[in-house]
Write a structure and sequence with these properties.
With about 550 residues, the protein is an alpha/beta fold. The strands form five sheets. It has a nine-stranded mixed beta sheet, sandwiched between helices. A two-stranded antiparallel sheet has the order 1-2. The longest helix is centred in the N-terminal third of the chain and has 27 residues.
Amino acid sequence: MCIKGSVVAPLLIAGLTITPSLQAAPVRTCESLTAMKLSHATIVSAKTLKAGPTTMTTFMGQTTLDVPARCEVHGISRPSLDSEIGFEVWLPLNGWNGKYQQRGNGGFAGVVNRVSLVDPLRRGYAVAATDNGHDAAKTPQGTFAIGHPEKVIDFGYRAVHDTSGQAKAIATAFYGKPPSRSYFVGCSDGGREALMEAQRFPEDFDGIIAGAPANDWSHLFTSFVWNELALSRERIPLEKLPTIQRAIVAACDDADGLKDGLVSNPPACRFDPAVLVCKGTDGQDCLTSAQAGTLKALLAGPKSPRTGEPIFAGLVTSGTEAMPMNWPLWVLGGSPGQSAHAGFGISYFRDVVFERPDWQMQSMDFDRDVRISNEKAAPILNSTNPDLRSFRARGGRLIQYHGWGDAAIAAPTSIEYYEAVRSFMSSAPDPRSTAKSVEDFYRLFMVPGLAHCSGGVGPVHFGNDADYGPAPAPSTDPERDMFAALERWVEHGIAPDRLIGSGPSPLDPTKTLTRPLCPHPQQAKYKGAGDTNDASNFACGMPAP
């Protein structure tokens, strides 16, 4: 434990000696922050809260976490006449590390993701998050957008940027000095926000983690409608998902050169749904021809009926399809129109694109309506711009990750964006930066078995769980904790050449598997001997052609 005013002992991390700065104490009372004058924002409340158990609502339900003592600030910002951006700032009362971290949201937002603030607070960070400019209890899903173009802008990019400025000003007032470093961490919509910050506001953050980004928002939500329409023609029963998963594992498991129950290289897999067509009568161990056709459409993804060009990547053959948080939640749902895909896709076109409560999914035109979506909403919501020159020039560092088992956002889209950045940056030199390649400031990690942002099977735990419920104590190991790796890269110039993920073995869930996670395009390759559950028996290398 650090004693205020004492000399902080050096910390040895993976062979690197790091001497933290002296930890800072507040210079004013928490409650006095309500008198602060902020640009277009008001502090509604500021309360000192003791350390102890706190019950919070997460994306997965309620959870109770031990939260350190803090000054908890609630504010509202109104950068436009129709804006009402809610935000929270948590300021550690003991041992502020001198830095700031902001957390992203999920889905259509509408609430402050409070559980995500606990992990940064435990690490000594002043931390903040926003509801993105609307209240989901009053305007669920995308209904906030109807008649409110300024709220769409707030959701798209303004709320996150504005919260960054307000929160840093509050932290500066409380501690008497500004944060020395600033970080952003988000997954899903938070990943979209993360890339938006790097693209539009490169001065806001020194380091960014973008998990499973919904950055191609307009086309992603088009794919949701595509999937639900395919299922409306012939649904795949939930009880047949284990059969589909087993067939995919059988076809794809050894595409990475190792048969271990983990599909580590889905792009190399050539799975044909036709192999599952029933030879005789229908049963749980096979698909009807119509169901196989539905599966083929889901894996193919939406295409333009006019040009035949892909609109968005199809679902991935991940070998995790039957897991509860994958296809049963996102794709199939409990009944027609009840999947997460259906809810998001319908609300996007009904409320955001057309602003017509009577819009019906069956009227969807994948040429005309996609064009309208691209013209109206994509410029505000999509964060697909590959020009990261300004972020790179000011020394920013970006880590992106995506799970191959993600049934919410198809993992290949992360590779598509990374390669778009690589192509653009190589053809657009910038005298402001000495970086010689994209890898000097931006790295992408593809994770076998990882579902949407967290969960799944295989090497799925690497410090990425804090948004969704109880998380382990913050790690200082930059190989096993992605945020620690980002800190080391930003503050000491050491890029993450690999991470170590851990989780249940797909062949025996009672055993723990560890596996290197390698920067794209590298993959973990088995050395040919030793326990396949042990990361030390793997090395990062290029996949087989």
